[in-house]
TrEMBL record:
The keyword Ribonucleoprotein applies. This protein binds to 23S rRNA in the presence of protein L20. This is Large ribosomal subunit protein bL21. Signal peptide: none annotated. GO terms for cellular component: cytoplasm; ribonucleoprotein complex; ribosome. Belongs to the bacterial ribosomal protein bL21 family. Keywords: Ribonucleoprotein, Ribosomal protein, RNA-binding, rRNA-binding. The keyword Ribonucleoprotein applies. GO terms for molecular function: rRNA binding; structural constituent of ribosome. Transmembrane segments: none annotated. GO terms for biological process: translation. It comes from Desulfobulbus propionicus (strain ATCC 33891 / DSM 2032 / VKM B-1956 / 1pr3). HAMAP family: Ribosomal_bL21. Part of the 50S ribosomal subunit. Contacts protein L20.
């Protein structure tokens, strides 16, 4: 059984037992999160497609980690103008362990 969920403006395919990193969610490590934006649920031969969401479906996940990704360097330069800007960015993320998928 797997589902396609939407969180943080992105879509993820998840199964029970998976671990994934999503955009930062509120909560502490060990908290349980319910993801209600389920777009599709597949259970063997049964396929439920939402329009846009599957009614009554939810994915329950546990917060495993709150962290930051590796640094991304943003470098801008205009040639022959003496203009250079160097910035770094570290995006926040939440690591989730998928526990159950209910349709």
């Amino acid at each position: 059984m797997y589902a396609i969920i939407r969180t943080g403006g992105k879509q993820y395919q998840v199964e029970a037992g998976d671990t994934l990193r999503v955009e930062k969610l509120q909560g502490e490590v060990g908290d349980t999160v319910e993801l209600a934006e389920v777009l599709l649920v597949v259970d063997g031969e049964t396929v439920k497609i939402g329009q846009p969401m599957v009614d009554g479906a939810k994915v329950v996940a546990k917060i495993v980690e709150q962290g930051r990704h590796k640094k991304v360097i943003v470098f801008k330069k205009k040639r022959r103008q003496g203009y250079q800007v160097k910035k770094g960015h570290r995006q926040m993320y939440t690591a989730l362990a998928i526990e159950t998928i209910s349709a």
